[in-house]
Amino acid sequence: MIARFAKIAFGTVAATLAVCAHADEDVLSNNFRVGAYYITYDTQADDLRGAYVPPGARIKLKDVITPYFAYVRRLTPHFSAELALGVPPLTKTYGKGPAKLGSVPYNDQEIVTARWLAPTLLLNYTFFDESVRLRPYIGAGINYTRFYSRKSTPAGDAAAGGPTSISLTTSVGPAATIGLSYRITRSFFLYGSLSASQVDTNLTANTAGVLRKTHVSFGPRAAVLAVGYSF
Predict the structure, then answer these.
(1) Is the CB of residue 111 less than 8 Å from the CB of residue 149?
(2) In the predicted model, what is the mean pLDDT of the chain?
(3) Which of 98-115 are b and which e, b meaning 16 or more Cβ less than 10 Å from the residue's Cβ?
């Protein structure tokens, strides 16, 4: 009797494990997404400091659109890890403040251009069961931003009084997102999200040894539309 019970119990456990293993094999744990970032900036910048800089001289940034890519790894039915990255956009910086610096136009003049590489790592929580087609999600994580191809434009050089080099420090800050996923088929999805991150940098403009500096908080806000493929 005991032997028979043990045999039945062993068979039940083996069958359960087989079903679970089969279910795990059916889960699509990897997801690749491609789409578009629309990035706006809530820029906060201190007045420029340095020689020959009048009070109120600041900067502002223009909105950009750039391709978006992400890899998402399913951790549980509700949690996932996301690595998101946009193609580094050409970001244009404009003068804000006085109409002129001396006799040189400044306000609304394009004075600096730069590109930035800004990967973001997020831990996302998705609501509802995986069988539901439309699922909202939220996420939080960390953003790393490195600036390169920094250039002062002819208008920037004129405002600074000569050829000028630009440096921007690297930024590490928090990031957050909220979005919706819609399952089209077992493998294909649509995504829409809004995200924000904290990107702070110290800008230094060097004109023949004359330094002008400011601290900038870019405050990027990104809207994303993307398609995803799970495998």
Answers:
(1) no
(2) 88
(3) beebeeeebbebebbbbb
Task: Report how far apart the first and last C-alpha atoms of the chain are (Å, whole number).
Answer: 47
pLDDT per position as a tens digit, 153-210: 999 999 899 999 999 999 999 999 999 999 999 999 999 999 999 999 999 999 999 9
Is the CA virtual torsion 201, 205, 211, 214 positive or negative? negative
Query: CA nearest 205: which of 47, 8, 26, 50?
Result: 50
Between CA 34 and CA 67 the distance in angstroms is: 7
Q: Is 108 left (phi over 0), alpha (psi -120 to 50) or beta?
A: left
Token pair of 85 as six digits: 């990255």
Quickly list H helices, 133-175: 154-160
Residue 203 contacts residue 2 (beta carbons within 8 Å): no
From the list 166, 15, 141, 165, the residue with the least C-alpha distance to 84 is: 141
Where residue 10 falls among pLDDT bands split at 50, 70, 90? very low
Residue 136: give its domain's CATH number.
2.40.160.20
In a domain, 163, yes or no: yes
Structural domain for 188, as ranges: 29-230
Residue 212 lies in a domain: yes
Q: How many domains does the chain have?
A: 1
